Amino acid sequence: ASNLCTYIARGNVALSVLMTTATTIGAIFMTPLLCKALLGAVVPVDAAGIAFSTIQVVLAPIAVGMLTNKFFPNFVKKILPFAPVVGVVSTCLLVASAVAQVAEPILNAGWGLQIPVLLLHLVGGLVGYALPRMTGFSEVSSRTMAIETSMKSSAFGFLLAKLHFGQYTARIPSAVSVVWMALTGSLLAVTWRFIPVKDE
């Protein structure tokens, strides 16, 4: 979703894909380690299963996309105009699926869950934009990093919670996060699409 929003915002898609790849590779190692360190005593964690799911769900599609673009560029050019629409519809279905599975607990949790999750994405986007600008990155790169940091994959977190954590409630925060992630990223993408970047 972050790569799609970067494309819509006319950001640096190559940087977006690079950041997604880097954080995904990092997640393969860090997610099991953090789960073991923070939750190991409470919830049994399948570290190998989480690593495999990370490769299967996130890293493999990125690799397929990059290889398709490299070896079949004409095919990619033909389907590229339809890619944003397919991406938006897929994101909507992903959000709807995650929320529908835990709708009642989300409603029962109220704003006490909604506000912290919203702030996670908003603060991530603000810091992701401000820090690169203060350290000399271009406007386009800073916008790209803001979208990336505000849209870290809640849907993937939901999937991991569903597959690898026995407790049903473990998936609720990620389901809420999926909604705010999509709204925050989409808002940034549409806003920046219509705010031209001045020559730097």
Description:
- With 200 residues, this protein is mainly alpha-helical.
- It has 10 helices and no strands.
- The longest helix has 27 residues.
- The two termini are 28 Å apart.
List the helices and strands and how they pair.
Elements: H1 2-8, H2 13-39, H3 47-71, H4 73-79, H5 83-101, H6 103-109, H7 111-134, H8 139-150, H9 154-164, H10 172-193
Helix pairs in contact: 1-2, 1-8, 1-10, 2-3, 2-8, 3-4, 3-9, 5-10, 7-8, 7-10, 8-10, 9-10
List keywords for this structure.
200 residues; 0% strand
Overview in brief:
This protein has helices at 2-8, 13-39, 47-71, 73-79, 83-101, 103-109, 111-134, 139-150, 154-164, 172-193. The protein is mostly helical.
Main sheet overview: none
Overall body shape: globular
Q: Which class do the helix and strand fractions yield?
A: mainly alpha
Overall strand count: 0
Mean pLDDT across all residues, rounded?
83
- What is the number of helical segments per DSSP (H or I, 4+ residues)? 10
Helix content range? over 70%
Ranges with pLDDT <50 over ≥5 residues?
Answer: none
Radius of gyration: 18 Å
Oligomer: single chain
Strand content: under 5%
Task: Give me the strand/helix succession.
Answer: HHHHHHHHHH
Q: State the end-to-end CA separation.
A: 28 Å
